[in-house]
Amino acid sequence: PRVLISGATRFLGSHLCDRFVAEGIEVMGMDNLITGNMENLEHQMDNPKFTFFNNDVSNFMHVPGELDYILTFASRASPIDYLKIPIQTLKMRSLGTHNLLGLALNKKARILVASTSKVYGDPLLHPQSEEYWGNINPV
User: Fold this and answer.
1) N or C: which terminal CB in the chain sees fewer CB atoms within 10 Å?
2) Cα separations in angstroms, 64 against 3, 103, 111
3) Rounded mean pLDDT, 46-70
4) Do residues 71 and 3 touch, judged by C-beta distance below 8 A?
């Protein structure tokens, strides 16, 4: 299998890169490094199972070859970053998701779009269970 992980230099993305590479899966990590940290992936740079693309998903992207899966973590869930880089955050979540969905369609790849509990509105319960719908029903 071959997987693309966007947001690859941050916590979740970098750990997923490590996990998939350890399982022998070919991984392409993608990040624009606005909020990520390249140090999280330095140990993978010489690994033949890993390729890094310094790219903003809100821009056009070309990924050579076949692709089986796309996992997107390309937008920070951080109120601090929302205030620092609001336009980039909106573009990553909207245009980036659009571009990655197009890439998945083109490559016939399965895609996982990660999000945060903020999509449900301000919760009335802490912590939220899997059955909790929040203040906004996403369905």
Assistant:
1) C
2) 12, 11, 17
3) 94
4) yes
